[in-house]
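Quick start: read one record
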Amino acid sequence: MEITKREVLVSICIIAVLLILGVWIGGCISDACADRDAIYNKALKIDSASLFEYGMRTNVGNAFVYGDLKAVDAVTFSEIGGEYMRVQKVTERYTRHTRTVTKTRTVNGKTQTYTTTEVYWSWDEIDRETRTCKEITFLGVPFNSNKIHIPATGYLKTIKKSSHIRYQYYGTGTEYVGTIFTDLRDNTITDGTDFYKNQTIDETVESLKSVNWTVIFWIAWIILIVGCVIGFYYIDNWWLE
């Protein structure tokens, strides 16, 4: 690959244009991150039921609230017992599959490529039933369960119905401790509020502020610039002659 002086000059222009564009985009990202962090820094920090209820009643806005998340009407499946905030029953069938596999072999000193049909078995999901409690409390205040994202389910047990059918059960506990970030307004909280399990308010704030998108952008942007310049050198730039 021969690089001409004209290609060098054009590549410098490409780099300059992309850097200018990058500065503008990076500035927008930096401003957005600063605005986001300002929201977190200005949000109230609450860890008592009285302040929590007062904040909802007086429309204080954004707040980090630390407390207990509990299920009021816990759910279950009779065959596994126990109580859960959310429980899932996944029905799986042991299914036969075929796939085409490419292999190589040596014949008379020469390598040949050929395909063959391979048979394999796997447990495939064919049905899923989910039960979720209708009511929860956070810091002692009752809400519909759709107000707060319930923590992810974990594996509970497996029950085999036959050699080809089994049931996998997954569930959550009935009580957790953690922090929510929400908007306290109109005597309630935001629908679908995230719950940060086992995190204090300060830990939650730091986790939300930890990602520096400006640095990530510039790393990706520099890689893009290098790729554009290398790609420019590789193409046939006959129009520069």
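The chain is about 30% helix and 40% strand.
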